[in-house]
Amino acid sequence: EPVHSDAVMVGTKVWLNRYGPATADGLVWVWRFPDRDHYSLRAANGTWELSRAQEEKAAVTVDATQAAWGTFLTTPREKRRLPTDGVRLEGTKSAIRKFANAFKSKLAAR
User: Fold this and answer.
1) pLDDT at 36 (0 to 100)
2) How far apart are alpha carbons 101 and 11 in whole angstroms?
3) Strand, coil or helix: what is 52?
4) For the residues 83-92, what does the mean pLDDT come to?
5) Which of 25, 69, 95, 109 has the most crowded CB, counting CB atoms within 10 A?
6) Hey, how many other C-beta atoms are within 10 angstroms of the C-beta on 20?
């Protein structure tokens, strides 16, 4: 069954709000799925807010299919690695490291 963008991104927001570290207000991460299906998560007031848009000035941009991101998010934490063949990350090394750490993922050697 196909993975829908809304479901995987709501799941991402819920996961970060429950398990992710506290982050500075204004931090933005963007997900670009196929067919110009874009989402942004912004840290604000101690929580993550989801919008269906590609916000400017993202610290990290994720290029992935919905299925690839859903698979990553449901992988046990001890087995998580980023990036993967289906999940590409754009950003500075520091920003990508913080992003991976937020999802309890190790960085893959690439």
Assistant:
1) 86
2) 17
3) coil
4) 96
5) 69
6) 18
- For the stretch 10-31, pLDDT in tens is 999 999 999 998 888 899 999 9
- Spatial strand order of the sheet with 28-33 comes to 47-51, 37-44, 28-33, 60-64, 87-91
Contact 54, 5 (CB under 8 A): no
DSSP letter at 16 equals: H
Cα–Cα distance between 31 and 87 in angstroms, integer?
A: 10
Q: Compute the residue count for the chain.
A: 110
Task: Provide the angle, in degrees to the nearest 10, between the axes of the packed helices 5-19 and 66-74.
Answer: 30
How far from 40 is each of 1, 10, 56, 78, 82, CA to CA, in Å? 24, 11, 9, 26, 19
